[in-house]
C-alpha cells in the first residue's frame, strides 16, 4: 500500500514545522519527522496565519487574551490587536481547506495550538492553559471529523498510529463520496472496517451496525451521521485488550484451515502481544502469512490488517 506521487494525501501543516522562517522571532520549528519522513507519503500544504495577515517575520509576538467570552489576539502591551484581521482570515481560509485529508499543528501557538494554549486575563500576565489556537479552532469547528494533531504528540507511538489510521480512513471515505456514495457502498465500507472499529471502541462499533442496517430514505443525513460516529470511534485509542479480542475473532476464521502447530503458533503470538512481549505487528504478520496460504476474501478485505502503509512503521512500537 505504497503512496505514489499521484495519489498522496494532502495534509495541512503549520508552515514553521516545515522549516519556514515564519515565527515571530524570524525562526522556525522544523519537525524532522515531517520534513524527513512524512514528506515521502504526503503532500504538505503549509499555512501560517500570522504571515497570511501581513504581520511579517520577525514581528511583535501576540497572545490570546480572554475578555469574558471573547478571545482577543494582542501583544503583551496591548498596543497591537489583530483580532479582527485574524478572524477574517480564518473565516476565509477554512473554506478553502475541504480537500485536506488531515492537519498537523504547531503546539502552544495562539493561532495554531490544538490544546492547552495560554489564555491571559486582560491587562495581566496571569494565564491558564485552557485555550485553542483561533485558526485551529476555526478549522476543527468547520471540519469536526478531519484528523488533526500536534506534531509533538506524534512522538507517542499510540497517538501516531491513531492519527494516521484516521487520516487513511478519512481519505477512504472522501474517495467513496467522490465516486458516488450509495447504500450498497456504505454497507461494503462498514464491512471492510468491522475489525478496525471493533479494536478501537466496541461500544461505538455496536452503535454503527444498526445505523447501517436501518438506512432509509434520508440517506444523505444518515450517511453523514454514520461517518461522524465512525470517526469518533477511530479517535478512541485502541487498547491492547481490544486488539487481543479482535485478533482472536480473526483467528476463528482459521480454525479448520490451520494445523495444530499453526494454531498454537498464532495463539502464542496473540497472547505474547497481550502481555506486551511482542508488538502488534507480530500477530498481524502471522495472520497475513496464513491468509496467503488459506485465502479468505472477507478477512483479506479487512482494513484492520493494513490500515496504513507498512513503510510508515506504525505498528512496530506497541
Automatic annotation (TrEMBL):
Domain of life: Bacteria
All residue ranges annotated as the DUF1722 domain in the record: 194-309
PANTHER family: INNER MEMBRANE PROTEIN (PTHR30087:SF0)
UniProt protein name: YbgA family protein
Species per Swiss-Prot/TrEMBL record: Shewanella submarina
Lineage: Bacteria, Pseudomonadati, Pseudomonadota, Gammaproteobacteria, Alteromonadales
